[in-house]
Each structure stands twice: as structure tokens, then as C-alpha cells.
Input
Amino acid sequence: MLSFDLRDLAAQASRVDGELPESDPIWEEGDARPRGALRVTGRVSAAGPGRFYFSGHLEGVATASCRRCLEPVEEPVKADLHLLLVDGSSDEADEADVYLIDARERELDLRPAIREEWLLAAPSYMVCSDACLGLCPSCGANKNLGACGCTPAVDPRWHALSPVGGDAR
Output
């Protein structure tokens, strides 16, 4: 469960134990979505009038294409979270690490803040291995699977620096 009644939170803290599925409408086009559900655990409590504090943990699996060879890659992502959620009329509303909530809402929805924290925690670029050779720039073959047989393309602007073809003055 990632939504909480604000009146209940004002009286006592609540345990957070929920999932944010990859099919949830909170995700936007182009987001690095998790494979399967994103697991969220922790505790949310009131931290004053119009202020709430969430302390917890998120865990999921990021998926992407290797930035060198375009093969699918998965990487586990874990992050500890400490979030301050305040209503828009608060003096802290302009601070970077503060999440705004609508003061007219009756429920505190953690999903937008969890989405942002996931996007910050998930790697932007992933490689299948540090030794990945990538794709051939000429024919596009995956060099990890073997040599492609292409002759390396040489930019003619570098020809003058070649010990064989240029004027070595």
C-alpha cells in the first residue's frame, strides 16, 4: 500500500509495505521502468502540520539495452529513501529534496516520489560486461560473438599521420 489517509497519519505513523508495478499509470513515456514490481518498505509519519516524513527502502530490477552491443541487460537496484513531503503552501516548497503534496488532498500518495527516487537510483547507462566489444561501426555485427570480417574504416583526414601513406616530415 502506497497511499495513506492523512487523518490517520496525523494520529500515528504507518508502516509502508507495497509494490509499484511496471504497469502503474504513474510511469511516464521514456521512464526507465523496473522489470516486474518495484518493492517499497518503510515508515511514513506526520512531521508537523502539512508535513510528512517517509523513511524506507526501494528494491527492483532495472532493464535496458547494453549501451555498447544493444543486448538486454538487467541490474538490481536498491536504495534507502528519506523523503520529506509538504503541502504547496509551505516555506520549504522550493527546496530540491522536498516533494509537494496538494493541501486539499485527503490521501498521501507516495507513488510520485517513489517514481522520482527510482529514476535517480536506476543506472542511466548499463553494459553487459566491462569487456563488451560492442557493435562493428561498419556492418553492425556484435563483436562479442566473433569477428565480422570488415576491414576497419579509416577516416581519410588521418591519412597524413600514417607512417605508410603520409608525408612524414
Remarks:
- The chain has a mean pLDDT of 86.
